Amino acid sequence: MNDADAEPPFPARSEPGEVGLVEPRDFVSNAPFTFDNGLAIPGFTLRYETYGHLNAARDNAVLICHALSGDHHCAGIHSLTDKKPGWWNNLIGPGKAVDTNKFFVLCANVLGGCQGSTGPSSLDPRTGRPYGITFPAVTIRDMVRSQKLWLDSLGITSLYAAIGGSMGGMQVLQWAIEYPSFVKRALAMATTAREGAQAIAFNEVGRQAILQDPEWNHGYYPKGGGPRVGLAIARMMAHITYLSDASMDRKFGRKAVRPRSSAADTPAAAPAAIDSMEGLDAVAPAATFDVRFEVESYLRYQGRSFINRFDANSYLYITRALDQFDLAAAHGSLEQAFSGVQAATLVVGFTSDWLFPPEQNRAIALALLRAGKRVSYAELATDLGHDSFLLESPQLYELVRGFLT
Amino acid sequence: MSRTAHTTASKPTASAAKAHPVKRTVDMQIIAGWVEPGSRVLDLGCGRGVLLEYLAQTKRVHAVGVDLDFDKISACVRRGLTAYQGDMMALMRALPENHFDRVICSRTLEELPDPGAIIEQALRIGKNVTVGFVNHGYWKNRAAAFFLGRKPQNAVYTTAWFESRPSNPASIADFEDFCSLRQLRIARSAHLLGDWKSPCPLAPNLLAGYALYDLTR
Q1: Which end of chain B is more exposed for a tag (fewer CB within 10 A), N or C?
Q2: Which whole number is the average pLDDT over B146-158?
Q3: Which residues of A touch B84 (CB under 8 A)?
Q4: Chain-centre distance of CA A265, in angstroms?
Q5: Phi, psi dihedrals of residue A14, rounded to the nearest 5°
Q6: Quick check: is A239 catalytic?
Q7: How far apart are CA A249 and CA A14, in angstroms?
Q8: What is the CATH code for B15-216?
Q9: Could you give the residue ranges of the DSSP H alpha helices within A109-227?
């Protein structure tokens, strides 16, 4: 499975190391799965990765839940030529805050996703064609219930902890509500028990960018095709909401990119495509509106790289799941939602997160307190916005390590 | 132990507390003596959770702390305590009546704005409120002001003015006047001499360096 498999576990106090080479695996369920809305699919697959070892007592499993655009690959590398490790590699590994010498760490791509788990781009075995928009509307609770079936299949009888940020944090809360005795610790960061109008609004603009792209074609498009422009624009806009004014200003300011004409001076292989929407836009933009600022170039790059790894229909489904998530409405009140929770919970907000702001994180902690539960709330001062939970922060590492002790 | 109060400024070190570990011990023992086993306790300005950890170990309390500083919350979490980072008034306002058996405000009160409002809130969400504070009427404090014309710096006020946090000190007489004005019942009290460990048998407003009160509605 990974590096550690070949060797005995490192001593617990070793220097932080790397998870190393990892391989994804598939959990395949052939039993019909019924979604919250009553619709069913004949079976499903969840692609997942694990790091470290399940101990004999089977009580050291730590579940990582990923965010909207994340996936099961949260630590390690898939090949020695990988430029980037998994998305939470800074937190997870031997000797790191989520210590794979101590914990058996698992992460699965969510139901409805497009990184190997069953979602709208998967083939419907009943028709032999991709589900497209015939895929049932997926909820955070559906994601969690499908993951429970996966963990059951691995013989995991309890979670030492469930950890996640953003949409991952929503799943963590849902886990603690849905399977109270199964989840011993719940760590939710940069999340919310219900999105505010602003977050829904941003998701709606993203969805409209996709839906209004003619290539969307009511959800029927070939693999690799589809509403690439719409999806790229959705990603560009969403990416802004993950950052902050201060962090964008520090990274880009008003730095200009070199004008297009000078591209001729550079070798032909120069990655001009990074700065352009070439191949995306049906109508080439007039030179006046060519990329001028580095921030534009950066967002275009984000958009371009996203369309190569993400399915537009999955984006529609998952943003809908985010918007629909409302623990208070689902249970009458947030306190009632948490009334059965048994996990010790830690909620972490980030001061500069304007997508799921600190107040929404605090509201979760206060409701848990009012419900008489064991909950801590910490708020890290950062200026990196919503994505702060991915930050390389020794303070955050200490907190997570302490919570898992 | 350095008690974080209503200020977001970075805190001076807890050097005063580290220099006087004995003082902390007696203080904690008295509070622990008042705490019912297994009760629900909120510590206002919990710092790194030293008191709450002691109460959790000796009295098996369900402990919750509140403090403004991330690293202090982190230290509490590491100790296995639950703690809330934020403004204590905002936290208390968000909680229902009688949510806690006891609210503790130890070595915090004099650094808070509007301490009367804090105690009022604490008595709403807690059945008992334990307050511990340095007695400003302690004779050495009076002497420093009267004979020397100085801000007191001695065993009870350990820091010079330029390294001190903003403070709104009260004497034992001030505090008891406040309690009678607000009709708060003093269920128990303890007065310690300037060494912060020996009981003060008489004239506490003059001779006690540290005072502890247990209030009820």
Answers
A1: C
A2: 89
A3: 365, 369, 375-377
A4: 40
A5: -70, 160
A6: no
A7: 38
A8: 3.40.50.150
A9: 140-153, 167-178, 197-211
Minimal Cα–Cα distance from A274 to chain B, Å? 40
On chain A, the residues whose CB falls within 8 A of the CB of B91 are 366
Cα–Cα nearest to B77, from A267, A397, A48:
A397
| Amino acid A274: pLDDT | 42
pLDDT for the residue numbered A13: 44
Residues of B in contact with A376 (CB under 8 A): 73, 76-77, 81-84
Among residues A71, A99, A213, A353, the one annotated as catalytic is: A353
Given the DSSP bridges, would you call strands A25-29 and A344-350 parallel, antiparallel or unpaired? Answer: unpaired
Tell me, yes or no, if A99 is annotated catalytic.
no
Amino acid at A158: S
Closest listed residue to residue A27, CA positions, set A100, A88, A111: A111
- CATH class, A3-196+325-403 region: alpha beta
Compute CA B16 distance to the chain's CA centroid, rounded to the nearest angstrom. 15
Contacts of B90 (CB under 8 A, 6+ apart): none
A201-312: CATH topology is Rna Polymerase Sigma Factor; Chain: A (1.10.1740)
Which residues of chain A are under the pLDDT cut of 50? 1-14, 262-275, 282
Q: What is the DSSP letter of A66?
A: -
Inter-chain contact B76–A362, Cβ cutoff 8 Å?
A: no
Placement of tokens 């997160």 in the chain: A353
As for the ipTM of the complex, it is 0.89
Quick check: B96 pLDDT over 70?
A: yes
What is the pLDDT at residue B13? 39
A to B CB pairs, distance under 8 Å: 62
Catalytic residue among A117, A166, A314, A352: A166
Bridge-based pairing of strands B126-134 and A92-93 is unpaired
Which residues in chain B have Cβ-Cβ distances shorter than 8 Å to A362? 86
The pLDDT assigned to B165 comes to 87
State residue B6's pLDDT score: 41
Quick check: pTM over 0.80? Answer: yes
Q: Is A388 a catalytic residue?
A: no
Per-residue tokens: B28: 């904690």
| pLDDT score of A4 | 36
**Segment holding A306, helix H or strand E:** helix A294-307
Query: Where do the structural domains in chain A lie, given as residue ranges?
Result: 3-196+325-403, 201-312
Q: How far apart are CA B59 and CA B57, in angstroms?
A: 6
Report which secondary-structure segment, H or E, holds A380.
strand A375-380
| pLDDT over threshold 70, residue B3 | no
- Long-range CB pairs of A80-89 (<8 Å, 24+ gap) are A80/A21, A85/A18, A85/A19, A86/A19, A86/A22, A86/A49, A87/A390, A88/A64, A88/A390, A89/A18, A89/A19
Rounded to the nearest angstrom, the minimum Cα separation between B20 and chain A is 27
Q: Which two tokens stand for residue B60?
A: 């098996």
